[in-house]
Design the sequence.
């Protein structure tokens, strides 16, 4: 039986929050975070607010991450940000392969793999996002798509580093739509991902892997989702833009966690 770890809840602020707004949100999360213990909280502000958020969160248990990176360490890549720059700004985490990056900006599975490797090399924890579109789900291709994105994202990682990768299952049809996957739908894919990890890395590694769910998570649905055996926490978009709803999700996950321990 796999031992559940405390909920991991990451907030993806996407392209929201100016500098003063980001400082206010980071400060409010910092203040309220003890009320969601033992949940692990991480925020992913836009690049321009990273250093300011790091300053606001310094000395607290709230982690900081970015939403994207480039795989090269430096060079003539106008508009891009390297892993070392993120570390410099105070990040410990970085999202890779978010569906908005894949579907709006045309990032490939191979790009996600390069980014995961670059993040690991710099000492960051990549949060590798995978998820099928509605069309793919309706065509019965969910597992095929998840497997393809997962294997490409994890390609070429040394055994010792794989444990640093956090995974996020985010069905594209549930992101920003208000249409959450049911706990059963989410668990089915989480269990599949854990099974594939077990085949690739062994059962112990798979049991310890953190697999988040993302897609219209709110305080009202976090409890029932976290009750599922293979859901270790959440990647939250819209509801992470207010401290109260972000912390509300974390508190609901903790409530479920205490019951499943
Ligand atoms: C996300 O951006 O990763 C996300 C899950 O967004 P939302 O919670 O708004 O669906």
Sequence:
């Amino acid at each position: 039986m796999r031992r559940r770890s405390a909920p991991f809840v990451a907030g993806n602020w996407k392209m929201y929050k100016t500098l003063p707004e980001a400082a206010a949100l980071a400060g409010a999360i910092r203040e309220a975070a003890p009320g969601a213990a033992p949940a692990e909280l991480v925020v992913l502000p836009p690049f321009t607010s990273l250093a300011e958020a790091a300053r606001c969160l310094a000395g607290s248990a709230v982690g900081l991450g970015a939403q994207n990176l480039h795989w090269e360490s430096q060079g003539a890549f106008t508009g891009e940000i390297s892993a070392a720059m993120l570390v410099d700004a105070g990040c410990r985490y970085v999202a890779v392969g978010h569906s908005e990056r894949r579907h709006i900006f045309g990032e490939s599975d191979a790009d996600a793999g390069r980014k995961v490797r670059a993040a690991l090399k710099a000492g960051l924890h990549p949060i590798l996002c995978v998820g099928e579109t509605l069309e793919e789900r309706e065509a019965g291709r969910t597992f095929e798509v998840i497997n393809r994105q997962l294997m490409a994202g994890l390609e070429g990682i040394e055994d010792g580093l794989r444990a640093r990768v956090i995974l996020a299952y985010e069905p594209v049809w549930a992101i920003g739509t208000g249409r959450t996957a049911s706990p059963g739908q989410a668990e089915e894919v989480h269990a599949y991902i854990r099974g594939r990890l077990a085949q690739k890395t062994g059962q112990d590694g798979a049991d310890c892997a953190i697999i988040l769910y993302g897609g219209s998570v709110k305080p009202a649905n976090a409890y029932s989702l976290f009750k599922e055996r293979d859901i270790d926490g959440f990647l939250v978009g819209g509801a992470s833009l207010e401290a109260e709803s972000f912390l509300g999700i974390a508190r609901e996950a903790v409530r479920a966690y205490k019951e499943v321990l």
